[in-house]
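Work Package 3 (structural annotation) set out to generate three-dimensional models for the target panel prioritized at the project kickoff. During this period the team completed the workflow that converts sequence records into discrete structure tokens, so that structures can be stored uniformly alongside our sequence database. As a representative example, we reproduce one entry of 193 residues exactly as it appears in the project archive.
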Amino acid sequence: MNVLGICGSPHREGNTAHALQYALRVIEGEGIDTAYLSLADYQIAPCRGCFTCRGGTCVQEDDMAVVVEAIERCDGLILASPVYMGLVTGQMKVMMDRTVLFRTGGRFALSGKVGAGIACGGFRNGGQELTLQAMHTFFLQQDMYAIADGPGYSHSGAAIAGRADTDQVGLQTVDNLARRVTRALQQMRGERE
């Protein structure tokens, strides 16, 4: 079992990277392998809507091929994005759009994988819920299981307000989310055995 974390921030070492790496450390502590990918390191062009991907591959030759391979290998996927104008960043949205190739031609290649989201905003009510809902919509359209952070906060996912390294409430939601992703994967593994 392994979990891939994709950071949608244009900043390699900002709040979102900190929160996502925190989640991945919690998951590693539970004995599950993790991988980290920052979209700031990749050049990904927007989807052209040509649906050539119905054949299984995209016609665009850019860094999205690396992202596709990483997503194919994972059992769990955590998306993390800062809040930009109340939603995910443009980089995250472009990546999400380009994954249409996983569900073209009647196939759903990500079906049954576990998905979870982390949103980082400037304030406690800074658009994190809408950002997380965009991620959940992505997971559901890919026929994935969408995991929330659960009790005692029970939001749509982990929500950071302000600086990630000092937001204790936010980091608790990240910890909760990571442990729930771990439990979901362990439960799935138990059902397969």
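Helices lie at 15-29, 64-73, 90-98, 128-141, 168-192.
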